[in-house]
Amino acid sequence: MQSYFSTPFSLVGVTPEGGSSGTFPSIMGISRANGMLLFNQRLEAVQALQCGLVGKIFPKDDFDRLSVEMIEEFEKLPRHSLLASKSLIRNNAWKQKMRGIFETEVEAIRRMFGSEATQKMIEERFDKKKQ
Known about the structure:
This protein is mainly alpha-helical. About 65% of the residues lie in helices and about 5% in strands. The chain is built from seven helices and two strands; from the N terminus they run E-H-H-E-H-H-H-H-H. The protein has helices at about 20-30, 30-35, 45-50, 65-75, 80-90, 90-115, 115-130, and strands at about 5, 45. The chain has a two-stranded antiparallel sheet with strand order 1-2.
């Protein structure tokens, strides 16, 4: 089985969460983000690499070995430098922006879960999985 990303929010009548309404468009462009977040289109691993959602993919048979090798290489890097660089990349402005996105998403999800239509869709979806 090939790896893929799926965001089935609209299948169960809810809205994007986890910051995806902000990060997906900025990473992969509005069209692809809309396809995933609104229309449940899957994103295959190669597509995720091409659009920048992931930085690397490994063949299934080599995944364990290659991921361990990569982690071992990362462990050799100077921790203080990595942390300083990460704080520059994920600075306060970025954190504030993401906090705003999360808060907006949480409010939208609360409204969705308060909706009878959403509750019915979720019940029907889980009932189908039980059968």
